[in-house]
Design goal:
The protein has 117 residues and is mostly helical. The protein has a single domain (20-111), classed as Winged helix-like DNA-binding domain superfamily/Winged helix DNA-binding domain (Arc Repressor Mutant, subunit A, Orthogonal Bundle), CATH 1.10.10. Helices cover 62% and strands 10% of the residues. The protein is built from 7 helices and 2 strands. Strands 1-2 form a two-stranded antiparallel ribbon. A hairpin with a 2-residue loop joins strand 1 and strand 2. Helix 3 (34-46) crosses helix 5. It is globular, with a radius of gyration of 17 Å. The relative contact order is 0.17.
């Protein structure tokens, strides 16, 4: 008698590598600083913040915020608006268009952390 092994694969894990937006996959999942980038994007999705506000809110070094903001901006996932003497960051149309893929990637990172424990 042949027995078939049933393997359970989480839906997010199977879909994640087939995403059309490889930039988001790189920014969030494939880099060492991806979790920090995701935290910054999450904060920006909540509302507009400047770099100093992000640093305080997320309890991250200002230079770390600057690095990640520059990286996220490079891929056009945030926009900046100047108000008085500060630049405030908002999610771009590109990020909002790809928000479902972003959430899938974040969920896969969360599941990874649970599996390691």
């Amino acid at each position: 008698m042949n027995r078939l092994a049933v393997i359970k694969i989480k839906k997010t894990e199977t879909n994640i590598w087939n995403l059309t937006n490889k930039e988001l996959l790189y920014l969030i999942k494939s880099r060492d600083g991806g979790k920090t980038t995701a935290r910054i994007i999450d904060a920006i999705l909540e509302g507009p913040y400047n770099r100093n506000q992000l640093s305080k809110k997320l309890q991250l070094d200002y230079k770390t915020i600057c690095y990640h903001i520059q990286l996220i901006s490079k891929y056009d996932y945030i926009t900046q608006e100047k108000f008085e003497q500060n630049y405030y960051y908002r999610p771009s149309k590109k990020l909002l268009k790809n928000i479902n893929e972003y959430n899938l990637i974040k969920e896969s990172i969360k599941n990874e952390g649970k599996n390691e424990k």
